[in-house]
Amino acid sequence: MLPQLFKAVISNAGSLNETYHLTLGLLGQLLLRIPPTEADAAVTEALADKYELLIQGEMSCSDIQGWKTIQLLFSLGAVCLDSRIGLDWACTVADILHSLNACPEWCTIIAAFTDHCIQQLPQTLKRTNLFTLLVLVGFAEVLCVGTQTVFIDNANEKHNMILLKHFTEKNHAAVVDVRTRKRKTVKDYQLIQSQDSCTVGLPGQPEGQGCPKTLLSRYLGNFTSIISHLLQTSQDNGSPDAVEASWVLSLALKGLYNILKKHGVEHAHEAIQESGLTQLLVRKCSKGTGFSKLWLLRDLEILSIMLYSSKREIHSMAQDPEREQREQDKEHDSDHSSCCADDTDVNKPDPLEGLDEETILQRVLKGCSHSMLCSLSLTACQFMEEPGMAVQVRESKHPYDNNTNFEDKVHIPGAIYLSVKFDSRCYTEEGCDELIMSSSSDFVQDVHNFSGSPQKWSDFEIPGDTLYYRFMSDMSNTEWGYKFTVTGGHRGRFQTGFEILKQMLADDQVLSQLPLADIWEWQVGVACRQTGNQRLRAIHLLLRLLQCQSQT
Asked: Per the structure, how many domains does the chain have?
């Protein structure tokens, strides 16, 4: 199963398809639970065909167990940086590496590979070295679905949250509180990384081990050397590596600042004085940046990554004129269907071909320990408590009346966002008769206005669980009117929980390890609270539990 996950991730790196992004997250969780030897074997099998990611780094240390896996992850993150749609992926890879670095089995391997890449800077500005430096000093704060974040409310109190959806065009984010499990919509600038972004994350030993002074001395030397070299050479803006050099300089400065902030200036004073770095920094700072003071640092960091990606993309298209069309086709397919193959890769074998849901679940369950089976079954029960996908329809008279001033709202409890889809016949007198929609009762937040011919009525999503709308018409001329359908957006966990429990109850070996009494009690509650097909599925599981009891 693990080689298939590697193949799926490598084949679809940077894809807009959320399924593959979730596959990457699942891969990261599995790596935390298996030894490096087993991970390397899976990587070797996954790369046996035609994948060439490992070319990005030398194989001088390939005899170290876990080296292939770590090299693949760093190379994968570097590849994602080259794509304008791969920023979320690169951030997720960085999170996986930070999680592995906390494991004693992996931290020394990550440290060795990081040292191997950092020592090549700034002379060798290849993408794997850049990504390694980016992970070392702290990845930019990218709001990815499923990541942990901290919400700071108006009272300056902190709340641990999980990001459900980021509405970039509205600067809003849908989150769920880890403690209360309540969902809310907040401004994205009120969210910060859950971990200290000022802490150097890689490489090194887990906290409490090793000698901080030794680590400080090693990284301080790397950063001062990189900064001094780049400030003295100061490449021209027209040089091929100008973007990479500027980016490496900013990341090295960030790393130096993080070390000084965490450990103090005392140990670093002598090294900085000897390198002549102070004079170089004064000369650099006196020129200014040209940026507005209103910009947030995290936004500038993300812009620097996008600038690098754009530069790489322009360079690649100059060498391959057909690349732009292939990228557009890939984005188009990813946007419209999670099960549709990329038109440009019709001859590429699907790494998941022949594996249906039942087969995948069977293999996962076989790999679970007895204690994990118990926890997994109760988690599946909890998933089934998720409310169903509620749908509501609103429409005017057809045609509508003159002198109309109507206001109402659509409320779907438990929704993290609302999806609005218009009827293709929507039509009002343009500029005179208007439908206004908003996520707030005062029609200030997330405002959408619609008026005129059917071509001007575009479907959209709005954060929160309530949609407010107002329709106004003047004293003359009417058209067909409006009709729209509102669907509450959820995470789709009910179906996941049902499929897991159904497979568990069908497997006799797994069945003997399950807390059947607890599952029965939970499913009775689910059947009482759910409606429609979801209630029927809960009853199906209850009947299966009765059969299991009679068989035992």
From this structure: 4
In sequence order, which ranges of 204-276 are alpha helices (DSSP H)? 212-233, 242-263, 266-275
342: in domain: no
Long-range contacts (CB closer than 8 Å, 24 or more residues apart) made by 346-354: 348/11, 351/4, 351/7, 351/8, 351/11, 352/4, 352/8
Same domain (yes/no): 266, 401 = no
Same domain? For 300 and 368 the reply is no
In a domain, 439, yes or no: yes
292 shares a domain with 160? no
Residue 348, domain member (yes or no): no
Q: Specify whether 297 is located in the same domain as 170.
A: no
Q: Is residue 287 domain-shared with residue 162, that is, in the same domain?
A: no
Residue 275 corresponds to which tokens in the numbers above?
Answer: 């390198």
What is the DSSP code (8-state) at residue 326? Answer: H
Domain with 95, as residue range(s), is 2-142+198-328
Looking at the structure, do residues 474 and 524 belong to the same domain, yes or no?
no
Q: Give, for 523, the enclosing helix (H) or strand (E).
A: helix 516-529
Q: What is the 3-state secondary structure (H, E, C) of 128-173?
A: HHHHHHHHHHCCCCCCCCCCEEEEECCCCCEEEEEEEEEEHHHCEE
Final residue in a domain of this structure, among 440, 467, 488: 488
Helix (H, G, I), strand (E, B) or coil at 255: helix
Three-state secondary structure call for residue 398: coil
Domain end residue (candidates: 451, 471, 488): 488
- 134 and 152 fall within a common domain: no
Tell me how far apart the alpha carbons of residues 272 and 212 are, in angstroms, rounded to a whole number: 18
Scanning 346-447, the segments in alpha helix (DSSP H) are 357-366, 370-383
pLDDT tens for the 552 residues of the chain, in order: 788 888 888 887 766 666 777 788 888 888 988 999 999 898 888 887 655 555 444 444 557 888 889 988 998 888 887 665 567 788 888 888 988 988 888 988 888 888 888 888 888 888 888 888 888 887 766 777 777 888 888 777 888 888 887 776 567 788 888 888 888 888 877 787 665 433 345 554 444 443 334 354 567 788 888 888 888 876 665 667 777 888 788 888 888 887 887 777 776 777 777 777 877 777 777 666 555 544 555 556 665 665 555 555 445 444 444 544 554 554 444 444 334 433 444 454 544 455 556 777 777 787 777 778 888 888 888 878 776 667 899 999 999 999 999 999 999 877 777 889 999 999 999 989 999 999 999 998 889 999 999 999 999 888 888 999 999 999 889 999 999 999 876 656 777 888 889 989 988 888 888 999 999 999 998 888 887 778 888 999 999 898 887 665
Are 136 and 30 in the same domain? yes
Contact 27, 10 (CB under 8 A): no
CATH of the domain at 156: 2.30.30
3-class DSSP state for residue 187? strand
